[in-house]
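Whether sequence alone determines local backbone shape is best considered at the level of individual chains. In the encoding step, the backbone of a single protein was reduced to a row of integers, each denoting a local shape. For completeness, the protein is quoted in full, as a sequence line and a line of structure tokens.
***
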Amino acid sequence: MVYKKDNKLINLHFIFIIIYLLLIVESFTPVERYGHSSVLVGNKIYFFGGYDGRNYTNEVFYLDLSQKFDTELPPWTDLTSNSGIGFKSSWATTVAINDKNNNPIIFLIGGVNLDQVGGSAFTSLVYTFNLQSGQWKIPKIKGTETVRRSYIQAVVDETGKIYVFGGLFDGSTGLEMSQDMIILNTNDLTLSYGTITNSPLKRYLYTATLLPNGMILYIGGLEYDNIEKEHITL
């Protein structure tokens, strides 16, 4: 009888260990990073890529805001194993829209794209992520061709048009800054240029906010007032 009781105790002990280990394995805590992209969809904030000071990443994870949680231990959910970006991404921009079936689609635009060994992995300016299927695609963009750019922020209006101003890109003589406004119409996937009349100077690392009156407010960042002078502005 003692032997049987001991067996029960041992079995319970092993069950506890297995459950504990499973909980530890399933938990996910993202490393500190910068240069990542994020977007709010419903009650969840989705995060993409980033740089931790040593390595770039293709991670995709989210934080569910629908319930209260301890800010010291947020309930992160990692999607990377099944839905990681096809390359290491940083300094891109993301916006979310609903497709014709009302399914949320996230557009990832521009940024630094690297392969697993650190070489350039740039094949498209625009990538889409379907939250329902968890799949990435490269959409066929029509219209104006434009350079890949990084250190940008995009906004999307109620008609499904995405606006991206400026950014940093690889030019013929090295890194250059842009002053153009590109517009991606997500309804027909057409890319075009918008007006730059009275626009800010060449700029990157800014914030962009779409106001209720349809105006886009750009704040901060680095800008050039001529080819040699660069300064921070607010």
